[in-house]
Amino acid sequence: MIMNDVATNYVKKANYIYDSVSEFAQEKAVFSNFRKSVAGNVEIINQFKNISGDICQIIDSGNFDLREFSLKFEKVKEVGDLANQVKNQINTTKRFLTNEHKNEVAEFEKFLANCFNNLTFETINNYKTKLVNAYIRLPKLLRECIAIYQGCISTADYYTIGLKADGTVIAVGKVRERWCIESWENIVAISAGDRYTFGLKANGTVLEAGGYDDIRTNSTKNWTNIVAISAGDHCVFGLKANGTVIAIDLDKFFKYDGNRTNDYGQCNTGSWRDIVSISTSGVHAVGLKTDGTVVAVGRNDAGQCNTKDWKDIVAISAGGRRTFGLRSDGTVVAVGYNEDGKYGTEDWKDIVAISAYTHVVGLKADGTVVTVGNNEYGECDTGGWRDIVAISTHGVYEHTIGLRANGTLVAVGRNYEGRCDIKDWSGIGPLDKEIIKQRKEEERRIKAEEQRRMEEEQARRKEEQRRANERWEAEKQRQAEERRKEEERKKEEELRRIEQSNRWKEQGLCRYCGGKFSGLFSKKCTVCGKAKDY
Ligand SMILES: [Zn+2]
Hints:
Layout: H1 3-20, H2 25-47, H3 49-61, H4 66-95, H5 99-118, H6 124-150, E1 153-155, E2 159-163, E3 169-173, E4 187-192, E5 196-201, E6 206-210, E7 226-231, E8 235-240, E9 245-249, E10 275-280, E11 284-289, E12 294-298, E13 313-319, E14 322-327, E15 332-336, E16 351-356, E17 359-364, E18 369-373, E19 388-392, E20 399-404, E21 409-413, H7 433-506, E22 517-518, E23 524-525
Antiparallel strand pairs: 1-2, 2-3, 4-5, 5-6, 7-8, 8-9, 10-11, 11-12, 13-14, 14-15, 16-17, 17-18, 19-20, 20-21, 22-23
Helix pairs in contact: 1-2, 1-3, 2-4, 4-5, 4-6, 5-6
Bound molecules: zinc ion.
Zinc ion binds near residues 510, 512, 513, 515 and 528.
């Protein structure tokens, strides 16, 4: 019997029993509830193989307690609703899943499949407990993933930076060579302010790049145990693992801005505790607390720091003279500058991330992006964006940047200083240990290859030298042989000459040339003129 038949079958039976049950009103009322419960549970019970079987068996037996049976149905409906919600949570989470969280979600998926396949009336309480745990954990897991992705892109008035999955950082726009971003490695999050850009390392320290007027502040040099960073035009904030926040006003490093250091009190975060997330516009800063409330310091001329009443907040963005908060239910609250009496975000729902400055950008759970605000440069034209996992906007020269799940970027709005020229970027995403491992292996392989080639070259040279030596030896031998032969030839010649001379002597001729002698007393050769000396 296929699943659908099982469910339809027991609904039919329930109706039949209802029709033929005794006329007693009380019993009929109880059974009415049961029947309603059955009808309302068809869809859900259909998902649970074993429960359907259980129900059919009980109905077939014709021997059951209606009240108890109704309660069981209620329970199945409750667990079924929960299971379906967990299923939806898993589907949403998978869209934003980082490698780091993959295993945990895979476990939940396995458990859910197990639940649909094996749930019985006996094990239902056990499954319910586990489903509740998943239901509580999954939104947190999603937020962890989103926060990691949000840390992978950052844009400012003059430039855009992106974190690559291998832990390096790339930049486009008004970025000068001396910024030295190229040498960064093991970065897990980045934040761009207009004067400086900061990179959070996996070990909890923070790197600084930039150099407004060639001044390097080294302000974050001694920071440790940092888990998140946020840079604004005038200051930089570091969230420590213990929930406190360090703030440094960058203005004090500039002679013409030094006299207005921390003039809005935006760096007065010393008393903040239990912070899980930070965001700054540069002149005001907000901190999200573990209990879902939000603290704010700094410029409050438009009420942008009036976040005291906020509750159930899971993400924050400080933009311009406004502050936006994302509620756990996916809606958005706002305070601060508000031209038309509306922020435009009132109707937003299913939001999982926000980024705000003069316009506001919202990332939805389905990977699309909504935008509201001034659209002079098309900065709000994000309607066609799909599979987005992070968003970023900053500054008054309006633009919007989006990170796709495949590691590429999209940009709309004003391409000031070329900060939107990100079309060629790829591999943007959370630092991936596997990629770093692969890169290191590749480096090792290249090094080994180089070593091998060097050794080969050495061996080749050695062989060449050996052959040259061999050739030289052979040449030396050949020359020696030649000399030996020459000497032999000379010796033979000498021998022949002596023999000839002896023969001439025997014949009474000149022993030098074989000529005849003449003269009576002193005989001389008639040819060479030498005197006879034998
Ligand atoms: Zn002679």
